[in-house]
Amino acid sequence: MIRKTMTVLAGAAFAAALVSIPASAAAPVSPMGEQSDVSVTAYSDCPAARMCIFNNLNGGRPWGYFAVGDANLGAAPGPSGLNNNAESGYNRTSQVWCFYDGAGYTNILGYMNPGDQYNFATDKRNKVTSLRVCP
Ligand SMILES: [Ca+2]
């Protein structure tokens, strides 16, 4: 496995651009992964009411968390080290979040339900470039 260059500060709060979320509910494509029995220790710092994504499996740091969507993880300001690098996630919000391969919420990869905490499926790892509460 290739070690990635990290530019994200652990535990840092990120200001993400506010996005307008359409009221209509489009059907998400598929889950980002499957619930697993891995230790919750590494996920434990994810704040309540935040969507957390992690650079490594099993909640491995570095990581970032979001109260609202981020249209482009590769753009500053924000956790640019997470762009195409997220491998696990923990949804501590009460809403379903959608994940996209492209910036600007394009090329949907999948979704995470409230409370979900797992490694992304192998074909969804290291691809997320934008994320938001599913429209
Ligand atoms: Ca991508």
In short:
Residues 1-25 form the signal peptide. The protein has a domain at 41-133: Gamma-B Crystallin, domain 1 (Sandwich), CATH 2.60.20.
Word description of this protein:
It is a single chain. This protein has a domain at 41-133: Crystallins (Gamma-B Crystallin, domain 1, Sandwich), CATH 2.60.20.10. 0% of the residues lie in helices and 27% in strands. The chain contains no helices and seven strands. It has strands at 51-56, 60-66, 88-91, 97-102, 106-112, 117-119, 130-133. A four-stranded antiparallel β-sheet has the order 2-1-3-6, with no helix packed on it. A three-stranded antiparallel β-sheet has the order 5-4-7, with no helix packed on it. The radius of gyration is 13 Å and the shape is globular. Calcium ion is lined by residues 84, 101, 127, 129. It comes from Lentzea aerocolonigenes (Lechevalieria aerocolonigenes). Keywords: Signal. Residues 1-25 form the signal peptide. This is Peptidase inhibitor family I36 protein.
